[in-house]
Amino acid sequence: MSRIGRLERKTEETQISVEINLDGSGKYSVDTGVGFLDHMLELFAKHGRFNLNVKAAGDLNVDCHHTVEDVGIVLGCAINEGLKENMKLRRYATTYTPMDETLSFVSLDVSGRPYLVFNGEFTVERLGDLDTEMIEEFFRSLVYNSKITAHLNILYGKNNHHKVESLFKGFGRALKEAVTIEDTLLSTKGSIEI
């Protein structure tokens, strides 16, 4: 069985297509026009062992905001679509991810109730061609559209690249565990609305 989500979204600002296989092996093809975001999505796919295809074209002549935010929206919707067929999930997962001097904490609940808590500070405005203020915006778009509760915390670190890398790797690892299929539905309500 493969749980696959596919979505294409076209606006006057961006054109985005995403396909994610939640039961993949970590293969990826990512081209958003924002090189640092591409690298982070590749890490997410590899460490989560998802097969991920992302193609985006956006108004990068303005800045990276619309592209980054919209990729988060479309990826979140694709994850949500991939989860619709089977909700007997492990549901919860927490990971600590070291990256040299940095340590991050990611905790997820695939609950149908989207919420983001983000605690992390950056000391530079950009990493490559990605504005660091867009890291939180990306994850907000992702979790609200996948209907996941996420707590993302950079516990400590100095290197900004390492901080972001740790979050993306940790999110991939936590999501992989949370969407693992179990033999029972983990809800006293009897349903999870994804």
TrEMBL record:
Question: GO cellular component terms?
Answer: cytoplasm
Q: In which pathway does it act?
A: Amino-acid biosynthesis; L-histidine biosynthesis; L-histidine from 5-phospho-alpha-D-ribose 1-diphosphate: step 6/9
Main location group? cytoplasm
Keyword annotations? Amino-acid biosynthesis, Cytoplasm, Histidine biosynthesis, Lyase
Q: Which reaction does it catalyse?
A: D-erythro-1-(imidazol-4-yl)glycerol 3-phosphate = 3-(imidazol-4-yl)-2-oxopropyl phosphate + H2O
List the GO biological process terms: L-histidine biosynthetic process
Q: Does the keyword Ligase apply?
A: no
Q: Which cellular compartments is it found in? A: Cytoplasm
The protein's GO terms of the molecular function aspect are: imidazoleglycerol-phosphate dehydratase activity
Does the keyword section mention Lyase?
Answer: yes
Which named protein is this?
Imidazoleglycerol-phosphate dehydratase
